[in-house]
Write a structure and sequence with these properties.
There is one protein chain. The chain is mainly α. Helices cover about 75% and strands about 0% of the residues. It has 20 helices and no strands. The protein is globular and about 65 Å long.
Length: about 450
Amino acid sequence: MGLFSGVIILIAGILAIIWLTSVLKFNTFLSLILVSLVMAVLTLPAGSVVPVLKKGFGGTLESIGLIIILGTIIGIILDQSGAAMSIARFFLKRTGEKKASAAMGITGLITGLPIFCDSGFIVLSGICRSLARSSKTAITVMAPVLAISLYGVHCLVPPHPGATAAAGIIGAPVGNVIMLGALTAIPAIFVTYFFIRFRSRKTRYNAVPEEIVEKEELSLPSAFFSFLPILIPLLLITVKSVLFMVSGLPDTSFLKKIIGFAGDPVIALLTGCFAGFPLLRGFSVKQWNKLLELAIEKAGPILIVTAAGGTFGAVIKESGIVSQLGEFVAALGLGIFIPYIIAVILKTSQGSSTIAVITAASISAPLLSSLGLDGEWGKTLAILAMGAGSMMLSHANDSFFWVVSKFSGMTTSETLRYYSVPTVILSITSFLIILLLSLFVA
């Protein structure tokens, strides 16, 4: 198969995924599988079509399945126990109502680490509107700050599905992605927060209607126990990543073995789950089982979509289509810009950040060597670049856009103006930070 025909097939496959999922609103899993099957038939020997599809699907689940399930369980525990609300109150007490938007942003950043952005916004939207009303802060400031803080960590930090699936497809250490993802997300969110505050400095407060202000829970868990399911996994993973990077300890070292085991993302997240169980001390066994079933049900669709994305990536890799582009891409000298640009195009055209990252990872994986990003940290930076690209211009084709609009009470035009524009700042700032990090760790 020639380079020209291979590129045509690749472009047609990408456009087919966008058309099926965005225009026809067809099931994402079936869209990815069908396109992968057609591309495999066109580019691979008949005897290897099904084995490659199975290998891509199973290999992705093997690398990220437990991480997504355990991360989802932690998120559900924080949601159902009221721990997310407890964290919000903790920061509000320290910032005061005059800086309620800052408290909302920090709350979104912390709770967004294990909780998916749409779920997090729904959980915290009540207190967001309540704080807007009590602090006389415009909802067009409060809601975008919360949305941006949740969105930033969702697109950059595992166990969220896009970054996690990309790590599985490319073969990057999830712990490294978590550590550098957090280091990228935090300053990018703060820069975007100040942009929102500056842009809205003359915005007048409009009263939030009484009927949509939700009552806060009367009994919430302590802030200390609420933080543990989030901070313990992050601490374990970070300690492992830093130790392995700078310690110089031999692989036979007992300390290195212990920290390596405890800092494995699966073990770290499992530890976080156990740390979250005290938050459910008032729950019966029946309620516990229901909560865990809810987490598994929520993780199921995410697992099959990410695994289907792995199938698409495996077909592209085995077909050799993208590898033929290696010399051409290397000659451009764009390096880490390539995965970022691919993700930007996919995100703005079809709306889903997760699909954008998974597809960008599938396309970029065979190119990383040509781009000079085939090392452990180079792969990590490439994944973060895709995550940054997947934030670009969240608008009407993105389901999170409508969650923000509906649960904040903002109109569509207000959401476009006050939320969509900051996502551009968030994307660009994140990518600039990644470029800076590449000077030190690539």
